Every structure is written in structure tokens, then in C-alpha cells.
Amino acid sequence: MTRLLYLHVVGSDAADGSEAFAVEMQKHLSAAVSEETRIDLISLAAHRPRHIDFHAYEGLILPDIIRHVRAGSGEYDGFVIGCFYDIGLREARELSGRAVVTAPCQAATDMAMQLGNRFSVLVGTPKNIPKMSENVRIYGRDHAMASMRAVGLSVWEQQTSPDVLPRMLEVGRDCVEQDGAEVLVLGCTAGFGLHATLSAELGVPVLDAMLAPTKYAEFLADTARRLGWYPSRAGGSAPPPEDEIDRWGLFEAEPKVGIRIVDPRPRSGSVAAPRSAMPDREKSDT
Distances in Å between the alpha carbon of 133 and those of 46, 100, 185? Predict the structure, then answer.
């Protein structure tokens, strides 16, 4: 069995009414993974930002992401960072042990390149474009990006506004007909659940920003178990020394959780090895 943890990287708690939304997110995720995969979801503590439209907010939640990945590295086979800015992706991978770590922009643009020659990304507002475009360039996929267009809706509006679907259809159609996009990527996890309708209306694959990194994590975790292809810990992928972490007391406090939604389906089997363990070449499941 594969166990994944989706990090809903905004502050929330049951008292503010956001638990129902988190439950819907977890249902959306669990419906997309196989019967052998279990996916839990957690949000950050209530005092954290309620959206990540601003880079200053990224800086505030980066320590939370690192701490949650570190804390869960012996329990989960994979982690998904739920923000299209891909916050803390490189940092979290240093601390994930044998677990894989994925994030929406890298995973979705990689998948888009397997499904068509050129893709466009639908983001919320113009504020999102510089950072997300920079990530696409860093990942080496800018040559395949036809465009990155804003639908003119904030994160909150993408969750609540009745204009979400019409705006995405309008902007998505421009991406296909004017920019030459063959695949569309939804550049915000708040737009979950719209991809099937958009794809049917626009006639091209539309990738959900929650599901793409989740399915990628599931694939990578399964591949690691079957073929022994675990995350590298050599060179630039080397983790911080455990004795140094212990000596400085860097992770003594448990990270705080706002909401935790545990996959309700029955669990069975063993999962991830301790963070310090690396696969034995002679004993890998190949």
C-alpha cells in the first residue's frame, strides 16, 4: 500500500468553517488514486496565511512545509505540496528520507509535455505570473509554454465565485485558439474539480493542479517500491547531517496542524522506512 500526504499549505481550523472544504479536497484526491493508495490531507495552523497570493506569505509558511515533511518522512511514501508556486519543493526533498515530494507546477507541466507539444497555464491574477513563469523556466519547459494567462480571480474567488467556470472557459479558449495551446494547466489548486468540464468544452486535456502532483507522487512512490528508484541523497540532493540537526535541536517541536483529514478507507501493509535509511541494492524490490 502507498501512503501519501497532501499539504494544504494555508492556515485553517474547524472553527472557521473550512473543514468542510478540506473534506471535499480529500475526497477529490482519494477518488483519483488507486485502491492501493491512501492519501491524508492536513492544513497549516490557523494563524498561518489563508491564501498564498503573495511572496511574503510564502516565506511565512516555508518552515511549516519543511517541518511537516520531516515529521512524516517515516510514515508516508510521498508528499504533495499544494501550491502552484511549488513552495519549498527543493528544501522538502532534502528532508523527506525515502519519500518522494511533488508540487503542482513541476508535475503538471511535465505531464503536459507528455500530452501535447505546447501548453498554456491558467492562473488567478497577474500577480501570479512572474513567479510561476520563473518556475517554468527553471524546470526547462518555457520553450513548450504557449502562454500564461490570468482569469482575473483571486484564490478565494476561485473557490466561491459563480464566474469561475465561464472565466476559465473564456481564457482557456483564447489559449487554444489564439496561442496554440494543445494542453491546458490549471495554475491554482483552488480550481479543483473543473478539469473534466473544461476539457470536454475546449477539446484539449486540462490538468487539475491538485491531481497532477498527486498522481505523479503515486507513480513515483510505486516505482520506488517496485524498482528501487528512491530519491537520490548524493551531491546536491544530500540531506543535512542528522547529528547536526540533533545537536542544534532544529526539529524538536512537533509541527502544528490546522485540520487533518485521514483517508477513511481501510489501511493495510507496511509503508515508508525511517528517513535515515536508504535502499539496499541487494534487497530492493526489483
Answer: 30, 24, 13
- CB-CB contact of 194 with 165 (8 Å): yes
CATH number at residue 157: 3.40.50.12500
Residue recorded with cell 528520507 = 97
| Residue range 38-88, pLDDT digits in tens | 999 999 999 999 999 899 999 999 999 999 999 999 999 999 999 999 999
Q: In the chain, what percentage of residues exceed pLDDT 90?
A: 81
* 162 and 229 belong to one structural domain: no
Query: Do 96 and 112 share a domain, yes or no?
Result: no
* Torsions phi, psi for 266 (to 5 deg): -60, 145
> Which CATH number is 95's domain given?
3.40.50.1860
What does the block give as the cell for 93?
526533498
Element (H, E) at 20: helix 19-30
Spell out where the chain has E strands: 2-11, 37-44, 78-81, 100-102, 119-123, 145-150, 183-186, 206-207, 257-261
**230-286 residue pLDDT tens:** 999 999 999 999 999 999 999 988 899 999 999 988 766 544 544 444 444 333 333
Which residues span the domain enclosing 197? 105-209
Cell matching residue 280: 539496499
116: left (phi over 0), alpha (psi -120 to 50) or beta: beta
Rounded CA separation 232/115 (Å): 27
CB 67 within 8 A of CB 255: yes
Contact (Cβ atoms closer than 8 angstroms) between residue 83 and residue 62: no
